[in-house]
Write the structure tokens for this entry.
Amino acid sequence: MKRDVLKTRFRAEEIPRFPCPHCEGRLRLAGEVKIHRSAATAWIANQAWSDIAQIEDEFHTALICESAECGQVVGMMGAVRYLADHEAGGSLAVELLEPKTFFPAPALIAIPNNTPPSVIREIRNAFSIAWIDPNAAAHRLQVSAEYIMDDFGIPEIVSGQRMTVDRRISLFGETNMAARTHADTFSALRTLGDSRAHGGEVDWPTLLDAFEIFESALEDLYGDKANMVAAAHKRLSDFARHARSNDGPQSGPPPAKPVMLREPQDEQDRGAPIRGREWPLGGLRNPVTGEPFASEAEAQAALAGEAASVPRESRWPAGVRKFGRT
Ligand SMILES: [Zn+2]
């Protein structure tokens, strides 16, 4: 995260070099900053009693990526506020731009290539509403964390009962593909995403903190290193399964000997191991009864069986759907 440039207020001549939405380049001003004053604001500005701090204009401008190969253009709109410049005797005003919306929005964090599309979509939604509504952006991060639960095969319904998000996060922390810290990260995001419901407001530095820890969790779960380790795990378990099956009557063609830490060779290498269905479930407990599962088959049946029969949309809490998720 390029935190130093992610500002909410700045002078027109000091526009931060926001990250490009499309590449790793930075944005720069592409033309001029156009400032508009409404008739109502002009009337206020003309009154003897008016204070410069009461004036709020609107601006729009275009930014462009500095990378010649990219050239992405981004529209930026927002409010203009004025501060009396006391050093200049209070007669001059300092003009400050407060962006409210960008299109397309700058990339606040890096998203690994192997991240599932549903998760990417929600993170980008969070980018685009971050400046105008940090609360809503925090909620989007929470929704994308729930999509990560889906991707890792964490069920929403177990033995006919709907899991709470907290319970799903806890289950996620018990799997051997996630660390306890990832579950803690998603728990923190969940609390933050619900803060509006509890009457709290998410401020800008807190939102950036949330993006930052989310970025590090994404890198752990979907970054290149995560995929290489997961692919190596799968090759080892394939090899072990083949070795066991050699003791029995049937044997297929021998799988390749596991090679550790090579680059992922193809789409299957990259994608397959990280999808949750193949995880060993032996360490899991039944979330309803709290008892350990007697066998992997029982765990699979309890965790996967019923979730699949419920329409996807109806399995989400009402609070998620009202934001128009598709
Ligand atoms: Zn670019």
